[in-house]
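Collaborator request, handled under Task 6.
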Amino acid sequence: MSSKLPLVPGFIENFILNWADKRQPSSSHQLTIDRHHLYILPTRHGIGYFIIILLILFVSINYENSSGFMLAFLLGSLGILGMVYTHQNINRLKIKIGRAESVFAGQNVLFPVYISQSIPSLHPNLKLLSETGQTISAHLVNEKNTECKLPLSTTHRGYIKPGRIKIFSEYPLGLFHAWSWLKLDSQCLVYPAPAPHHYPLDFSEENIHGLFSNNKQGMDDFAGIRQYQVGDLANHMAWKAIAKTGELQTKLFNNESTQKIYINWSHTDETLQLEQRLSVLCRMVLDASQQNINFGLHIPGTRIPPACGLQHKHRCLKALALFGVSE
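Structure tokens returned to the collaborator:
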């Protein structure tokens, strides 16, 4: 984690992290912060603040100055009061994490985090730190809940979890740093990063890299009804026939392009590394989906029949994301 605890050397911080992990409750999609899992230390400014108070106190003792005593005790009281407010700014908050939308490798995953409390009160300047170093701010101002998006950077495909999240605050005076570590159970699927260049999708039988069938039907004249296939457009559904038979069916039209292609592992250059080949296939999937082409995906161990639509696109991208990766 990129954030360091105030005035704590790195090797001591690692010891504290390991010790705190043993005290953390088991992973869950929500938890309540209590005093057993809430920690507080003075900041650099706080250390300087109390050193100044001690200097004022020693000078007052030396010169028997009652005004100096009053000033030292007043500043000391403010410091202690600030410590209580800093601690209570996080104590008893309820934290819940939602499910993030899938992204491509290299993009930030945005995990929705919900912060709530049982009684509306003031909890300003709350900060959450992700395991990859991004920080966001949240505020609870006389309301029961708020939502924020916690970013988490990605470098590889597959499932990613939020890991250890740190919630902290230095409100109101910045003299103390109160924090708690959260272990929230959620995950997000990261697709391979699409290749920057586009590749041709008009695979022909003569081309050793692919195969296709190119039939012509269309959107002008009604041509009949067939059984529903995954990826069929919702506005092509034969609702009257569905109401009669109770089975999903799709309308067919003349002159509708129903080009079907297979995006195959063999379409990629064998000299490329694994992740590069997956990036090329990812780009092909995105381009075929954007062009409304009925396409299938064939990679080692997985064969997805041709279809179209958003659901089909995500199914193919998921297969690429989890290729060679255990779920």
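The cover message to the collaborator said: "The chain has two domains: 10-191, 212-321. Confidence is low (pLDDT under 50) at residues 204-219. Please let us know whether this matches your experimental observations."
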